[in-house]
Amino acid sequence: MEIKVNNLTKRYPSKLALDNISFYHKGKGVIGYLGPNGAGKTTTFKILAGLLKPTSGSVFIDGFDVTKNLKKVLLNVGAVIESPEPDKFQTIKEALTMSGEFRGLSKEDINHQIDKYGKLLELPPLNLRTGRLSKGQRQRVSLVAALIPEPSILLLDEPTSGLDPAERIKFKKLILSLKKDRLILISSHVIQEIKEVCDEIIFINNGKLLKEDSVKNLQKKYKDLERAYLKIVGD
Amino acid sequence: MAYSNVHPKEISRMSEIAISFKYQLKSYLRTKRFIALAILVALISIAVFAVEAHAGVNVINAEYSNASNYLYSFMQNITFVVVILAAFFGGNAISTDFASNYSYYILVQPARRSSLLIGRYIAALLASFSIILIYYLFAAIASFYFFGTLPLVFASSIGLVALFVLSILSFAFFLSSLFNNPQTSTVAVVILLIVALPIASSVLQGFLSVQPWFLVNYGGQVVYTIFSTHFVHFSQVVIPTKGAKFTITQYEPYTLEGIEIMLGYIIIFFLASIFMYNYKEVKN
After folding, report:
1. What global pTM score does this model have?
2. Fewer CB atoms inside 10 A, N or C side of chain A?
3. How far apart are CA A133 and CA A152, in angstroms?
4. ABC transporter domain spans which residues (chain A) (predicted)?
5. What is the bridge-based pairing of β-strands A29-34 and A56-61?
């Protein structure tokens, strides 16, 4: 369980989205990736999952270079970035089964995992086509898909967007349970959400990594996370 | 939430392709466009057959004299059908990923993008081909009905039409990789394949006397020219006008030439599609 980001830069034609970002985490726990909209959070996640290529710098997950060994990286990574939409003509069961099949899981294991996480996240009937689901339901399907292979690393970019308050509470409980044996990188611009589940926080704004510290230290130093956020990131 | 006995493992490229193919084909078969196109092709085939049957066996026999000539005429519409099918099944093959949030679901799976695309390509071939077979089925029925026989080259034509579908799909996949909007890419494919290429082919041949060996629709003509009993590769018609003679040239491809053109399109444009799909980033 290791994420190593070295001098990561991503430049779009009109914008510098990430500016020489580096961080390193090893072992289980939840790392919050906190910053305002447009800070560069999603860009970082997309690079970690191989959806974008870095302009410069490198990313290693469990020792594998994301740009060179993406398949090996994704085998052990569950990623929910933005609001994924499975193929709208697939049923929920098919979308989830496909995800398990790509990871070489047996039918029995896939069914077991769908049952386990489907119940936990209260998925709609599995024979429903995903095109008929609400945004929140699709988000939960994507979460289950990410969890089916029991990955040791989870990349969750704004995973609660589209979820209603009750679903957010369930999601929080799930993360607290999952963090016992996984490394989870989770982004949000909702401080409360991050505070409740994270062990460490990375603050980012305008593509720059501003600060990285444990929640304990931040609370000790700034009294609470809201204040820390305002001091570090600004209004 | 302890770990269960679930242990992901790398699967082979063939397995990746098979998974992509299986789910993509299911999706294609569930689309309204598949059902609509299958019904449309069946209706057109029935209508053509019904009109000719109404005219009577003797009239058709007198007009075409044998089954090959009849099929040469019957099959001329198939190139249009192929283009329509390929446009609908291939025109958004890549662009749809990047226009919707589907990319966030499919591209985080541990599978090579090239495998995903090959699976889609084979699925699109099968979806298109299953509809084309409806047309061939009616052609065979009509041939038996009017002439009591089916020429052996009928089987070759089926093979050639499969190549033609693959070549048009490759081209459509490539065009779809140039756009980020599936509607735009589908329309672009339709306009290019149904309007622009046939016009270009006609102008090049008819007025400039240039053999359009580089156009896939020209190569695809072998699907029906293979039935020709008096094949002419090159012909010219001189039309006298006031003060000058006007010459219209027409080429028909040799079978081998048509196969080469189609293979060229399959290889070049499918490789280009894979390159583009690998290269594309999920930016929006």
Report:
1. 0.91
2. C
3. 28
4. 3-231
5. unpaired
**CATH number for A36:** 3.40.50.300
Q: How far apart are CA B255 and CA A43, in angstroms?
A: 52
Structural domain that includes position A219: 1-75+198-235
**How far apart, in Å, are the Cα atoms of B24 and each of A88, B31, B39, B175, B234?**
11, 11, 21, 19, 43
Contact between chains at A84 and B27 (C-beta distance less than 8 A): no
> Among all residues of chain A, which has the CA nearest to that of B31?
A89
Domain that holds residue B174: 13-194+263-279
Residue type, A169: I
Residues of chain A contacting residue B21, judged by C-beta atoms under 8 Å apart: none
pLDDT tens sequence across B13-72: 999 999 999 999 999 999 998 999 999 999 999 998 999 999 989 999 998 889 999 999
Contact with chain A for residue B2, Cβ under 8 A: yes
Domain match, A172 and A232 both:
no
| Cβ atoms of B70 and B143 closer than 8 Å | yes
Q: Quick: pLDDT tens for A116-153.
A: 999 988 899 999 999 999 988 999 999 999 999 999 99
Here the tokens at position B253 are 């491809």
Per-residue b or e along A170-185, where b marks 16 or more CB atoms closer than 10 Å to that residue's CB: bbeebbeebbeebbbb
Cross-strand partners of A65:
A60
